[in-house]
Specification:
Helix content is 73%, strand content 0%. By secondary structure, the chain is mainly alpha-helical. The termini are far apart.
Length: 166
């Protein structure tokens, strides 16, 4: 019982640092994150605090400072992750939109290709156009130089059988 009373009384007798002492320690910490022995003795003399207490303050302050840095780094990484997730979602929507647009363009192409097919056109077992004819169609759909899709007018001319000539 006597031990507990001594423990609590010594804990309550511990003096807190004054605002001026904390300001001086903070300023010192701002310029030196590590406490060298000479600085510890100098601060001890200036503040009237035992060197051990200064060392403990520095150790605690350094731990808090590192935690703050980690928290800032975490927040920055979290923001980058959130931005990447948002960008991924936007790209996925764009891919979906482009796939739907491509499907709209390919459906009329497939119907037109089937109607253009003459008696020499062969069908595969599933009833679709043969791969030879599909390859032939793809060559007309892609620009030779830049692999860009042909312009609508060129496609229309091809579909009408004029190949751009009147």
């Amino acid at each position: 019982m006597a031990y507990q009373n001594n423990y609590h009384s010594s804990k309550h007798n511990k003096k807190r640092l004054t605002q001026d002492q904390v300001r001086l320690l903070e300023a010192s910490f701002g310029s030196n994150k590590k406490l060298d022995p000479e600085l510890k003795l100098q601060l001890s003399r200036e503040l009237g605090i035992p060197p051990r207490r200064i060392a403990i303050w520095y150790q605690n302050k350094r731990a808090r400072w590192k935690n703050e840095i980690l928290e800032l780094d975490y927040n920055a990484l979290q923001m980058r992750l959130d931005m990447a997730i948002t960008q991924k979602s936007q790209l996925e929507r764009e891919v979906g939109r482009l796939q739907a647009e491509l499907q709209k363009v390919q459906q009329p192409q497939a119907r037109a290709g089937a109607s253009m097919c003459d008696t020499n056109c062969s069908f595969n077992e599933g009833g679709g156009i043969s791969s030879v004819h599909e390859d032939h169609m793809k060559r007309y759909w892609l620009d030779n130089v830049n692999d860009e899709v042909l312009q609508v007018e060129q496609l229309y001319a091809y579909m009408m059988g004029t190949n751009g000539t009147n």
